[in-house]
Amino acid sequence: MRKDWLRFIMKSENYDVDLLLKEALSSTEIPPPELVEKVKCFSKEEFDLKNTKRRTFSVAAIIMALILVPTSVFAAWHFLSPAEVANRLESPALAQAFRSDDALLINETKSQKGYDVTFLGIVSGEGLTELDSTVDKAKSYAVVAIAKQEGSMPDTSDEDYDSVPFFVSPLIKGQEPWLYNIASMGGGYSTCVVDGVMYRIIECDSLEMFADRGLQLIVSSTDFYSTEAYNYDKASGLVTPNPDFDGVNLVFDLPLDPKKGDYEKAQQYLDSLWEDNETSGAEEDLVPANENGNAVELLERVTK
Amino acid sequence: MEIWSAIKLKQSAPRCESNEFINLVDEYGDSIYKFCRSLTYSREDADDLFQETFLRVFEQLPKLNASGNPQGFLFSTSLYIWKSWKRKYARRKRLAPMERLDENRVSSVEMEDNIMMQEEIRIVREIVESLPEKYKIPLILYYTVEMSVTDIAAVLKLPQGTVKSRLFKGRELVEKGLAEIHYEK
């Protein structure tokens, strides 16, 4: 359906990328009045106070790291631990969670196409990061380190930072990966580059309820889930790397304790993921296309 | 009535310490906010960037005056802070659909039940979002902030010819992105 309307638009006599950009990017949005008032109230003292507060927070995080990191028994010698990564990203609660007994430290490295990718660990909990706007909802956080076998990963401020994209996502055994991945599961990520190694913390709705079904974690050099990178076997419900894919397409086991699974709750969650889209027409777009694989391609393309 | 006025005057006095600053907020606040919303992934981040921009400008009013180009100074400051934040706090990105840039406008589209239009807007935004910064920023300044090429050149400290060429290339990349979607099997 998306292709149809694009074809319609692009063949239209009025098709003009300039007009499309005007339509898509123009905005009549204005700042909230209270924000404007707040800004107008600034004084030098407030400026100083604001900056001091931020510095104090950073120092506190560093002190926490200095005190607590040596107690961790985890960490490959050349990588930061998940807790250290969380501290780098100024998520002290998440760092603390990664140091708790609830955290699962994996530390498994796989190499492919000149990259060493290490699945460092995973933890679940509520309100662990500022990134998580739904603090009353349990979320899962996994940390992955990506290093080049020769050279360094580009810094986040470098222009070529996104030249090789990476997509890191959990997948649920038995669920179509193009429909159920980090993007549809309230996901997000934070990235930092330290000493030439890229660390990525991914966040999504809690995975623990799926523990009895089985989970995988994929890392691919794509913008989104790609059917070119992975083959999905309906019988086993698992994905495997497509050997013909020219790029990174790794699969890790995500060994959560099956006892934490809640099949019924998980099913309700899965059902709810697409309920919202029924009203927006998204499901109408996806389901028919999904049967012949086109939906996946469209999802990938629109994110490039 | 007189008492109320007196209280109001007393309360508002600190805000009037710098009429120049307040005029700046009034004149450029809307366009800076649009810019901040386009650069960031959430309203909260946009609010932070907006505040930080004016905080920095407040402290550097003498420099702003010396620049002779308050608009350029403001947008440069905003861009600089955004880049600094990226370096300092790294990238934080939501994979869930981005917040709509203009809820009022989209909601009116929804009222017209124009799904195609929504899709069109969403995909073009996503393509722009995925562009390298050197193309994305000029496009945002041109289409969202509605800045002239001359002003964009001043903000980005680039020759006008370079801005024109980046806008051209940016449009070309958007068109290419749309064509790829169209022509792929």
| Gap from first CA to last CA of chain B | 73 Å
Assign an overall shape of chain B.
globular
Discrete helix count of chain A: 9
The low-confidence parts of chain B are 1-16, 94-101, 106-113
Helix content of chain B: over 70%
Q: How many β-strand stretches of chain B?
A: 1
What topology, given as strand order, has the largest sheet of chain A? 1-2-3-6-5
Number of helices of chain B: 10
The overall average pLDDT of chain A, rounded, is 74
Round the mean pLDDT of chain B to the nearest integer and report it: 75
What letter string, H or E per element, gives the SSE order of chain A? HHHHHHEEEEEEEEEEHHH
Question: Which radius of gyration of chain A do the C-alpha atoms yield?
Answer: 22 Å
Helix-residue proportion of chain A = 25-40%
Which residues of chain A form runs of ≥5 with pLDDT under 50? 47-77, 131-136, 276-304
Which pair of chains forms the biggest interface, and how many residues does each contribute? A-B, 67 and 70 residues
Oligomerization state: heterodimer
Overall shape of chain A: it is globular
Q: Can you offer a commentary on this structure?
A:
The complex is a heterodimer of chains A (304) and B (185). With 304 residues, chain A is α+β, with helices and mostly antiparallel strands. Chain A has nine helices and ten strands. In chain A, the strands form three sheets. In chain A, strands 1-2-3-6-5 form a five-stranded antiparallel β-sheet, covered by helices on one side. In chain A, strands 4-7-10 form a three-stranded antiparallel β-sheet, with no helix packed on it. In chain A, strand 1 and strand 2 form a beta hairpin. In chain A, helix 5 packs antiparallel against helix 6. The longest helix of chain A has 25 residues. The radius of gyration of chain A is 22 Å and the shape is globular. The relative contact order of chain A is 0.10. Chain B is an all-alpha fold and 185 residues long. Chain B has ten helices and one strand, in the order H-H-H-H-H-E-H-H-H-H-H. In chain B, helix 2 packs across helix 5. Chain B is globular, with a radius of gyration of 20 Å. Chain B starts with a helix and ends with a helix. The interface between A and B is large, with 67 and 70 residues.
